[in-house]
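Q: Hi! First time doing this. I have a protein sequence and I read that you can turn it into a structure. Is that right? Here it is:
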Amino acid sequence: MKIKFLTFLMAVFLLSACAEGPTPYPTLEPQPTLTIDYQIVGSTKNTYMVVINPKDNADRVRLQEIGFRLCQNSIKCMVWFWDDVNKADTSYPVDPDKEQTLIAEYTSDLYTATSELKVFTLGDPR
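A: Yes, that's right. Below is the predicted 3D structure, encoded as structure tokens:
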């Protein structure tokens, strides 16, 4: 008698838990289109290697937007930028010879709520 009663209660409990239906997924709002051409040429868990096509020096300001978009779902993240696909390095860690051809580096850390964009030009210390 007790086993039948417990089985009945368990069945009622399971049916009531499943009666709610699936949890609806939140609707994602579309993100604006970036105004700079870029291509991801490599990635690891927390690092992206990106080749961009800056039309002028003002386009480099938009690197922050690319870095933010790529790192928005990662706790700690790095984005390395090159302006020539032949100079880009898709291995991790980056080869020191290829590191000298970086035009920018974006780092983001959600634990400390910081992000930083370093833009390099020839002759600047790394």
